[in-house]
């Protein structure tokens, strides 16, 4: 067991895998446990960068790049933008549900999932539906399958993103001129002070 | 050698972390972060199965999950902003208006 671990950590892939695994789990633990929204968001972004590292190890180059652009670029920027509306620097006070029960349930589900996934897989019954082509880059391969076999889901996803964009604008755009975090009286007081 | 099981176990652990976050958090923004963690865990599992069975279907599903996550964030943050304007906080306990 230990010898196996030592041998696998010596290879480049094994070293990268264990490094990314430990770092992602740690960063996501910070995300889940942190009291500060800013810390949680930063560690989530860092964890997502490391998850794209997993994708690069697995040879899913295009997926890794999409993860970097969409998750780290777009989604995190959106969260950071939304944070301007909420008071992000203050620690949030929440009365969390009883911690022992939650950790018990989380631990039990983790144990169950690990047991399920470590069970032997009857893999000679599994056949590749859209096998990867030899000598073709990953991005090209993904493009071939995406624009032939998954064209309709792709278009539906495009329409869904359009709907989401419009609803985001409608929901967030109402009364945009009205400040959320600052009291209007504060501005007035400040103005009076400036005049004096 | 790193096998499929390694990746699936890591993905299961990250998913459980997200689950603990969803169960534990009371702040809506933090709940969103926890769901992102869970979605990412599933993406790792899909990509690793795609790699080890030499099949592109897993990667396709991961792409669609990313698209769904992006639209979920767009709509969800809009709703959060509306809720914050209305109630002045994002705490689930403050938002619970129906008490049994």
Question: How are the secondary structure elements laid out?
Answer:
The complex is a heterodimer of chains A (196) and B (100).
Chain A: H1 2-10, H2 12-33, H3 37-57, H4 61-82, H5 99-118, H6 138-146, H7 151-173, H8 184-195
Helix pairs in contact in A: 2-3, 3-4
Chain B: H1 4-24, H2 28-52, H3 57-87, H4 92-95
Helix pairs in contact in B: 1-2, 2-3
Short recap of the structure:
The complex is a heterodimer of chains A (196) and B (100). Chain A has eight helices and no strands.
**How would you sum up the major sheet of chain B?**
none
* Mean pLDDT score of chain A: 84
Largest sheet of chain A: none
How far apart lie the N and C ends of chain A?
A: 76 Å
State the shape of chain A.
extended
* Helix proportion of chain B: over 70%
Number of strands of chain B: 0
Number of domains of chain B: 1
User: Quaternary arrangement of the chains shown?
Assistant: heterodimer
Q: What Rg of chain B do the Cα atoms give?
A: 17 Å
**Helix content percent band of chain A:** over 70%
The CATH first-level class of chain B comes to: Mainly Alpha
- Can you tell me the CATH architecture of the domain at 1-90 in chain A? Up-down Bundle
N-to-C span of chain B:
55 Å
| CATH topology group of chain B | Helix Hairpins
Number of helical elements of chain A = 8
